[in-house]
Amino acid sequence: MPFPRRVALRSLFALAVVAATGGTLGRIxxxxxxxGADPYAFDEMYAGRRIRGLxxxxxxxxxxxxxxxxxxxxxxxxxxxxxxxxxxxxxxPLAATRAAVDAAGSAPLSRYAAGHGLHSDPTGGNPxxxxx
Length: 132
Fold this sequence. Notes:
The protein is built from three helices and six strands. It has helices spanning 5-21, 24-30, 93-104; strands at 42-46, 49-55, 61-65, 68-70, 73-74, 80-81. It has a four-stranded antiparallel beta sheet. Strands 5-6 form a two-stranded antiparallel sheet. It is globular, with a radius of gyration of 15 Å.
């Protein structure tokens, strides 16, 4: 069976992301959570998934769901939203991460979609049509 072009392109894209970020996402995922001074720190099991939050290299919040990055966006009202649940502003990155886990259900987050708007499965994988 020949090597699918789509797999090759995804692999190249993943390598380009790692090269462009200097492996930052891998270091963030492997770094233990810093508690106390970190305003975005959380580490808990929620709905059967491990969710972690911490402050990223540029001072922005970083959220991980089962070790995969979840893109967080700041709203004009001071709240937070994610691509999975962007209809309701949440008061904190933790609340936004929990809302994203609720929206994703049992669908895994795509390792290629870390805030780039790309999806590995064009059909979604969630019965509600949520792309993760």
